[in-house]
From TrEMBL:
<protein>
    <submittedName>
        <fullName>Nucleolar protein 11</fullName>
    </submittedName>
</protein>
<dbReference type="InterPro" id="IPR012584">
    <property type="entry name" value="NOL11_N"/>
</dbReference>
<dbReference type="Pfam" id="PF08168">
    <property type="entry name" value="NOL11_N"/>
</dbReference>
<keyword id="KW-0805">Transcription regulation</keyword>
<dbReference type="InterPro" id="IPR048897">
    <property type="entry name" value="Nol11_C"/>
</dbReference>
<dbReference type="InterPro" id="IPR036322">
    <property type="entry name" value="WD40_repeat_dom_sf"/>
</dbReference>
<dbReference type="GO" id="GO:0003723">
    <property type="term" value="F:RNA binding"/>
</dbReference>
<dbReference type="Pfam" id="PF20998">
    <property type="entry name" value="Nol11_C"/>
</dbReference>
<feature type="domain" description="Nucleolar protein 11 C-terminal">
    <location>
        <begin position="416"/>
        <end position="657"/>
    </location>
</feature>
<feature type="region of interest" description="Disordered">
    <location>
        <begin position="374"/>
        <end position="399"/>
    </location>
</feature>
<dbReference type="GO" id="GO:0030490">
    <property type="term" value="P:maturation of SSU-rRNA"/>
</dbReference>
<dbReference type="GO" id="GO:0005730">
    <property type="term" value="C:nucleolus"/>
</dbReference>
<keyword id="KW-0010">Activator</keyword>
<dbReference type="InterPro" id="IPR042859">
    <property type="entry name" value="NOL11"/>
</dbReference>
<feature type="domain" description="Nucleolar protein 11 N-terminal">
    <location>
        <begin position="1"/>
        <end position="338"/>
    </location>
</feature>
<keyword id="KW-0539">Nucleus</keyword>
<keyword id="KW-0698">rRNA processing</keyword>
Length: 665
């Protein structure tokens, strides 16, 4: 499944006075994936190194002048190109300090944008639709520029796509409620015009995004009603029917996004790859009103795969370079790393479970086509099944509550009543799509639990997690709530079933688990398979009495000292005990049974070194040492020749243990 990782701030924003504009015109990738150019809405261009989150250079035009076209990088000449006051082309190098002392050329017509891609000559798009290569324009700056568009037609969006070593300028226009698409090919010059199908009266696209795959240009556009359409144009034979007559542009509906009340105002949809779209400014289907999210949707399976709440105002701007999303929100420009691995149907639905080598376990854990296509639920655990059967029998005599009624109950009803109604709702056979419903139920329960310290429904939350229709992105506060309420069984379930837990949350779990006492850990009810594995692994060990959290209590040492002074008979007894301890100290588990189970869940959770390492600094030196002692214990156990193979039990692999040792050193 797609994932959004921990983000960071690249720079601050100075929004426009009316707060409708972020203050940024454009973010452009520069020489490589670690450098970007940020052009503000007034006078400045700044070069940033993304990994260091710091500016390298900045250039500003004089007071009274305005940058009307964002800066781009010309990779052929290693220069920057921007436009001020619509007609003045400015070109400079990184070592230049003052723009007034660099090259300037004034052209005869207003410029809309300068587009540039690596290895190609920049292209200039004029306000009236004409296109020129930069060098040919600069050879005669005052050359006449033709008007391609009609008088009342205005460009709304443009981009540049390279197709088989040929550059295509793509731009959209609007005229009297009609929207058009233009494809301008360079060398040879051909132009094709298409008419977009009308949406509801008065609605025009909020955003466009273009990509090239399989000899086709793919155009994606989002409307205020939440509809995301795709139009595909073949590049073969493009321009053969060139003329003023606009061709109809067929479209297909890719997504219908939730819009809440009213229409979207500042939103954007951006193509990430053939199956994934990033969306900002659209409500999260499981979150309450007033919260803004950045989301990744899978267009093949119509599923929400990742979501991240963004603080502050959303401006409907979004850029993507080298698996990083750049998004202005509030008073910051944030960088959000992401990944979009290829999805199978099971993972797209959030139902892909851990692979098991045991055939019977695999048959139980991998969803069948009936599960996926017809909404049949996977067999629940015995405890959940028993609880569900009992509740279903009780509720057969009473009419079932609707989903909306259950949501209202969650706001005020006691926990027992909520448990009963949620049981009935989930067990009902006519629920075709659990994912959005479960997400909203969990979010409502978590929200009330955070607001009311006396309210908590551990069994209901565990049941919702067991449906496998929930993930961290859908309910981002669930794991932290479980840690706060010391509900470690729920933490274990989330670590098992959620494929998208951020590294910060994983580290918070590790810190909590490593800090808790063995006595408290033994009181926790945990998943049986994971306990069985560690019971088998630890069987037959004999270690020092009173070992807690990797350290022997001083009271034990004092007691032994007192005993030694008692006489030779006791000394002989200690010698006999010493002979019984045949296991070397490093092969004795430094923590208790249930604590090992929780630590194993952390070991089994997916993570990225880059985003995990900063959070490991929150661990104390004693916590790190204890965790390394446990990893050493596992490594030595796994390395033994007689180590038993326990197929089907949930356990970390030797490679996972070794990777964690390297990460924590």
């Amino acid at each position: 499944m797609a994932a959004l990782y921990e983000g960071y701030t690249l720079c601050g924003l100075v929004p426009a006075q009316n707060q409708s504009n972020s203050g940024i015109q454009e973010v452009e990738e520069e020489r490589d994936c670690d450098h970007v150019l940020v052009t503000d809405s007034t006078r400045s261009v700044t070069l940033y190194k993304v990994s260091d989150q710091k500016p390298l250079s900045s250039w500003t035009v004089k007071q009274g002048q305005t940058l009307t076209c964002p800066a781009v990088y010309n990779s052929q000449t290693k220069e920057y190109v921007a436009v001020s006051d619509n007609k003045v082309i400015r070109i400079w190098k990184e070592e230049d300090i003052l723009l007034e002392k660099t090259f300037k050329a004034t052209v005869s017509s207003d410029i809309r944008r300068v587009h540039s891609v690596p290895g190609e000559e920049p292209v200039v798009l004029f306000q009236r639709g004409a296109v020129r290569l930069l060098d040919s324009l600069l050879s005669a700056p005052q050359q006449p520029i033709e008007e391609v568009l009609s008088q009342e037609e205005a460009i709304r969006w443009s981009t540049l796509v390279v197709v088989e070593s040929q550059q295509f300028v793509i731009f959209t226009t609007e005229q009297k409620g009609e929207n058009f698409l233009y494809l301008q090919r360079l060398k040879p010059n051909t132009l094709q015009r298409y008419r977009l199908e009308r949406e509801e009266p008065g609605l025009s696209p909020l955003s466009f995004s273009a990509s090239y795959t399989d000899k086709h240009i793919r155009l994606l556009y989002l409307y205020p009603n939440g509809h995301v359409y795709q139009s595909v144009v073949s590049v073969r034979g493009l321009g053969a029917e060139e003329g003023a007559q606009a061709l109809p542009l067929p479209r297909s509906l890719l997504l219908v996004l939730p819009v809440g009340e009213g229409l979207l105002e500042a939103a954007s949809a951006l193509v990430l790859d053939e199956a994934h779209v990033a969306v900002v400014g659209v409500p999260h289907p499981s979150a309450g009103a007033g919260k803004d999210f950045l989301c990744i949707w899978n267009t093949n399976f119509q599923t929400l795969q990742a979501g991240k709440e963004m603080a502050g105002k959303i401006y409907g701007q979004l850029w993507s370079f080298s698996n990083k999303l750049f998004i202005p929100h509030g008073k910051a420009l944030s960088v959000i790393p992401y990944e979009c691995p290829k999805s199978c149907l099971a993972s797209a639905l959030g139902k892909l479970r851990q692979a098991k080598s045991d055939e019977s376990k695999a048959a139980a854990s991998v969803p069948s086509w009936n599960n996926l296509l017809h909404g049949e639920k996977a067999p629940p655990s015995r405890a959940v099944e028993t609880r569900k059967t009992r509740t279903t029998r009780k509720s057969q005599s009473a009419p079932s509550s609707t989903f909306d009624q259950v949501l209202e109950l969650i706001k005020t009803a006691p926990a027992e009543e909520i448990q009963k109604e949620v049981d009935g709702l989930i067990s009902r056979s006519d629920m075709q799509d659990l994912q959005p419903s479960v997400g909203q139920l969990a979010s409502a329960l978590v929200s009330r639990s955070l607001d009311d310290a006396t309210f908590y429904t551990p069994s209901t939350l565990a049941q919702l997690v067991h449906t496998r229709s929930l993930c961290h992105s859908v309910c981002p506060d669930l794991v932290l709530l479980a840690l706060e309420r010391k509900d470690y069984f729920l933490c274990q379930l989330c670590l098992q079933f959620f494929p998208d837990i951020p590294e910060a949350v994983t580290c918070a779990c590790l810190k909590t688990f490593i800090s808790m006492s063995d006595v408290d850990a033994e009181k926790v009810s945990l998943e049986p398979d994971s306990v069985s594995f560690m019971e088998t692994l630890m069987a037959g060990e004999r270690g020092p009495v009173g070992l807690q959290n990797g350290f022997s209590p001083t009271s034990c040492d004092e007691e032994r000292s007192d005993t030694l002074s008692g006489g030779g008979a006791v000394i002989n007894t200690r010698a006999e005990d010493k002979e019984k301890i045949s296991t070397p100290p490093e092969q004795i588990c430094p923590v208790g049974l249930h604590k090992t189970v929780l630590l194993n869940e952390v070991l089994l959770t997916a993570y990225s070194d880059t985003y995990l390492l900063p959070h490991l600094k929150d661990l104390s030196s004693q916590q790190v040492v204890l965790f390394l002692q446990y990893l050493q214990y596992l490594y030595l156990k796994y390395s033994q020749d007689g180590f038993p193979q326990m197929n089907g039990l949930r356990s970390p692999s030797l490679s996972q243990v070794c990777i964690q040792v390297c990460t924590h050193h």
